[in-house]
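Quality-control log, excerpt.
Job 1 of 2 completed; input and output follow.
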Amino acid sequence: MRINQSAGKSALLLPQDKNNAAEPIVIVVDDDAAVREGLSELILSAGFQPVSFASTQEVLNAVDILDSPGCLILDVHMPGASGLHLQHRLAESGIAKPIIFLTGHGNIPMTVQAMKAGAVDFLTKPVSDQTLLDAVIAAIALDGARRAEAIIVKRNLERLGTLTHREREILREVVTRGRLNKQIAFDLGISEVTVKLHRANVMRKMEVRSIGELIRAWETLPPTMRESGGPGI
């Protein structure tokens, strides 16, 4: 699939149908049209879908593309906002898109800044095709892992939301303190039978079969929620 490219505008290589919508998209951001074209051809040859932009602002204007699976290949020095600035903006917006920096003018402080901010790699032009593709594959794998984790977190938050206040109290006693039914009953001033009933409800609503699974589900929740005990605890 080829789309004409004009000076100052991005060349978009987008999926042609909905069946391709979930395929990894590699977003290339570079003000050099020749670089964008070369990287797009390389990415296509590796079986991934390229989308290219000439500036960081164009990426921010097309924010929907950032929701798709994949990664970013960013030049550092471009007219307007730099690639490092875009990395910062995305982080501020909570967009954990894996980023590979590819630049002809890198230095050690710049590399350290980018890597500390979560970049997958910081490569200097010229770079071999295989080195770049290895970085892209690693970035896409990282994105896939993050997305899978996000699905699990969302699912467990939804399940947590079905618990009553008392069930959440008992959940917290079990997973954070390892308390036995009789200990929980004494602490809460209720019968051990009632604790058993609530605990069974917790297991059923959280869709787990063992305390180990319950603890693992709890540990997927955001740290701030675990520390506070979650809503209503």
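Job 2 of 2 completed; input and output follow.
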Amino acid sequence: MTNDEQNLYLSKEYAEAMRYMDNAKETLKRAVKQDDGRYKDEKYVRSACGIAYLGVLAALDAWLTLKGVEIPKKRKHTNINFYLSNVGRLDMKMLGHLNDAYNALHLDGYYRKVRNIKIIEGGFDEAYYIIEKIKPEHPVDVPESRGDMVKRVWDKMMVSLAVTFRF
């Protein structure tokens, strides 16, 4: 991959991962912080954590691709073990950040329904750290294709439905 191709690829993947994080932050705002250091509404916390975790996975897919790791078809690598083994083989520091993001966002925030503000914010910090690893040196404006626009609108609608009906 040439530098220009790599820069374009990273620009697109970085924008996608940040889009996930923007959606997660917007969803988390609906959870409302309480004085006791916890979020009020579990539903919004769970949704926000799930969305942020997907942003982490999107960033990791791009990072692993740049490192020469072949990414299997989407349905065959949803297990965290794929990421842990490949990231651990390449970068132990990144593995630590992945473990922390996985525990805070996926396990605690999404599955265990933890509403502790510090834990959730820590998970978001770890997610941003991982996503920043794919930030291109010279970002390029990636024009949104018609298909990407339809996907963005569809994703936003599905997130709204998931939040509303607790999928």
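Post-run check on job 2. DSSP finds six helices and no strands in the chain.
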